[in-house]
Amino acid sequence: MQNSPVGVDALSRTHPCHEKQPGRSIVMTTYDPLGGPQSVGEAIYPLCLMEEANFIYLHDLVQGKRSFSPENSEIDRVTEMTGFGRDSVEYLLASLSILYIHVSKLLKRGMIYNDAVLKTVEDIISDVDWGEELKDKLEARLSMMLAPTKNHHDFIKIERLKAGFQDHAIAFSSIVELRPKYSDDEDDKLAIEGYLPSIQFRITTDSEDGRYLIFQLSEDALKELKKSVDRLSKKIEVLKTSESLYQRIIEV
Length: 252
Description:
By secondary structure, the protein is an alpha+beta fold. The protein folds into 3 domains: 8-163, no CATH class; 175-214, no CATH class; 218-252. It contains 9 helices and 3 strands. The protein has helices at residues 40-44, 46-49, 52-62, 72-82, 86-108, 113-124, 132-145, 150-163, 219-241, and strands at residues 169-182, 192-205, 212-217. Strand 2 (192-205) and strand 3 (212-217) form a beta hairpin. The chain starts with 39 loop residues before the first helix and ends in an 11-residue tail after the last helix.
């Protein structure tokens, strides 16, 4: 996902249309897909709207090795089943991941699991009148979703290892152009004598300031780049098929 919900330090921050008013319950809002939901509560709300069968399917899905980051095909399946829209499903999963980490921190401080979930629910709905029925439903479903498991724990560690400390290359683009070679300007008879192919390549990273690198390639350099990438792919394949290592390679 390109965007992610706000962090746990803003669990109770709500969309302006969700200001708490006595006797009023939260309503489903349509958020700007460019900006996403305005609070974790808004992102997690679809969890309460799911039919029981769909909730059980989602619960069983996130118990797998990929935890709260299932394959795209699985996200498409949940989107189809619930009718919420892919953005809503992705924000829901990302919010569940954030809340799992949040509850884990409370557990490390010595809080009992049920109390940690209840405290999290109260933080989420502190500025919004969800009503007792939805509050109880949210608490019950989060209690199931956020229960500590080895798969959740392992996936968080794997994601941390994948992230590392360096910016990640996330997008690649190129431009091929022809640069004209002009004749010498003699007797005002300027003419194009030919064209030189030129390649520009851009690598975009996930840095906060959107840092990117642009460089120029000759055709020979492009061939060397391709050879290097092909060799890198072969190295990865050798690691994955090594008899001494293949059982310890983590697929993500």
